[in-house]
Design goal:
The N and C termini lie close together (about 10 Å). The chain has two domains: about 1-135 and about 315-340, Alpha-Beta Complex (Quinone Oxidoreductase, Chain A, domain 1), CATH 3.90.180; about 155-290, Quinone Oxidoreductase, Chain A, domain 1 (Alpha-Beta Complex). By secondary structure, it is α/β, with parallel strands linked by helices. Helix 8 links the parallel strand 15 and strand 16 (about 285-290). Helix content is about 30%, strand content about 25%. The strands form four sheets. Strands 3, 5, 6, 9, 10, 17 and 18 form a seven-stranded mixed beta sheet that branches. The longest helix is centred in the middle third of the chain and has 21 residues, at about 140-160. It binds zinc ion. Zinc ion binds near residues 93 and 98.
């Protein structure tokens, strides 16, 4: 079958559209005929690799997939050949204390398709049946694929971990990126009073306003820390979402009102930096981290996608053979939504 793979770690020139064997399935798995797969910035880091990431090579990329069940394992009773399905992008053991208490994102064996496991930039992939969610007929495959990882991550951070409440003010640092745009939409749906968004281009900020942002600040045109301070009547906001890290953390902490929460699921500008600890205790701040999310959050947020209350922005749909082109576009940055591959 055709797939987007790399044979060794490195830059994107290691990635190619080529033939790999079609996966075989175990008794608890189904063979998914992939109808859509969505790109994530994580793909670029997986190609580069890191210490401790020991992949079977060639590695089939892609965290997010949706499609049709093409074959079912002997123990699978809930799904049949021909079912349209979305895939919860994370796999866990299903037996440990974390899994049994609904915290499967903390499982020792927690793994993500396309990162630790073979992914969905392929015509077929083997998937445990318990990762599947039936996809209603009116929901396109590309919508399900585009939504999965970013929405479960944003929902888990903002709602389950961050306890974001109706009537609160929120600042999202960064207007591009799937998790940030999903966060803006979810904050709107949750009843945010004011949504402030800091971004690097007027285009991305216009999109943020379409998704529900009330106030947008172009960081190339003004001092965004000062702008937030002034716009909030020198109070700051209840919640800051900062997935940038090194370049922004200090200003994010300063932008919080007393008792505020800083939520983080990543650090696109670098993981190690200093900040002034006096903000943390002096203003009674909390820093709340998480990564991806548990199954119940996946079901919850995908239900909202199926109901049309959350709509992932899709920038471009490419054929699977255009996967390398799509990855290069993502590497360059300026996107107005998800990039999707269709085998
Ligand atoms: Zn477990």
């Amino acid at each position: 079958m055709k797939a987007i793979v790399f044979h060794q770690h490195g830059k994107l020139d290691q990635v190619e559209y080529s033939d790999v064997p079609r996966p075989t399935i175990g008794p608890d798995e189904v063979l998914l005929e992939v109808k859509a797969a969505a790109l994530n910035r994580l793909d670029l880091w997986v190609v580069e690799g890191w210490r401790g990431l020991n992949l079977a090579l060639p590695h089939v990329m892609g965290c997010d997939g949706a499609g049709v069940v093409a074959e079912v394992g002997g123990n699978v009773t809930d799904f049949a050949v021909g079912d349209r399905v979305a895939v919860n992008p994370t796999r866990s053991c299903g037996r440990c204390d974390f899994c049994l208490s609904g915290r499967d994102q903390m499982c020792d064996q927690f793994a993500l398709f396309g990162e630790h496991l073979p992914g969905f930039y392929a015509e077929y992939q083997a998937v445990p049946a318990r990762n599947l969610l039936k996809l209603p007929d009116h929901v396109p495959f590309e919508v399900a694929a585009a939504a999965s990882l970013v929405y479960v991550t944003a929902w888990h951070s903002l709602i389950s971990r961050g306890r974001f409440q109706a009537g609160e003010d929120i600042l999202v640092v960064g207007a591009g990126g799937g998790v940030n745009t999903a966060t803006i939409e979810i904050a709107r749906l949750a009843g945010a009073r004011m949504i402030y968004v800091v971004g690097s281009s007027d285009e991305k900020l216009m999109q943020a306003r379409r998704l529900g942002a009330d106030v947008t600040i172009n960081r190339h045109q003004e001092d965004w820390g000062k702008a937030v301070f002034q716009a909030t009547g020198r109070q700051g906001v209840d919640v800051v979402v900062d997935n940038v890290g090194a370049a922004t953390y200090q200003i994010s902490l300063r932008s919080l009102k007393r008792g505020g929460r800083l939520l983080t699921v990543g650090n696109t500008s670098g993981p190690k930096f200093e900040f002034d600890n006096r903000y943390i205790f002096g203003k009674h701040l909390s820093i709340i981290g998480s990564t991806m999310g548990p199954r119940q959050d996946y079901d919850k947020v995908m239900g909202l996608v199926f109901d049309g209350r959350l709509k992932p922005a899709i920038d471009t749909i490419y054929p699977l053979s255009g996967g390398v082109t799509a990855l290069r576009r993502m590497e360059q940055g300026e996107l107005a939504g998800k990039l999707v591959l269709k085998p």
